[in-house]
Design a protein that fits this description.
88% helix; Snapin; single chain; Snapin/Pallidin/Snn1; Biogenesis of lysosome-related organelles complex 1 subunit 7; mainly alpha; coiled coil; 120 residues; Single alpha-helices involved in coiled-coils or other helix-helix interfaces; 2 helices; SNARE binding
């Protein structure tokens, strides 16, 4: 085996890789959470606007056909809900990945420490 390519070097590389990935996964999780909050807020605004358009349509003495606009808003709301579901699934996968990275980091650190103590 070549120098520097033994189990210790691989463990150090894996530990470094895990340390590198953890902040990126956490940052991505925060961004997904922020987007999901924005999606919920957008959905609430769409609901409010659709309700207001229906109310205006009912109150108007002049016949304005706002139904197509209400339907467009409801279609947009449906798409927002779909995107939110996709984001929720992605965030759950990110949480599981973050948990796995943390668990693997603890396991590898314990292995490195055990290996270090055995060599003394």
């Amino acid at each position: 085996m070549a120098a520097g390519s033994g189990p210790g070097a691989r463990e150090l590389f894996a530990e470094g890789l895990l340390q590198f990935l953890r902040p990126a996964v956490r940052q991505l999780d925060r961004h997904v959470h922020s987007v999901r909050e924005s999606q919920v807020e957008l959905r609430e605004h769409i609901d409010s606007l659709a309700t207001e358009l229906c109310r205006i349509n009912e109150d108007q003495k002049v016949a304005l056909d706002l139904d197509p606009y209400v339907k467009k808003l409801l279609n947009a709301r449906r798409r927002v809900v779909l995107v939110n579901n996709i984001l929720q699934n992605a965030q759950e996968r990110l949480r599981r990945l973050n948990h796995s990275v943390a668990k693997e980091t603890v396991r590898r650190r314990a292995m490195l420490e055990a290996g270090g103590y055995q060599g003394k």
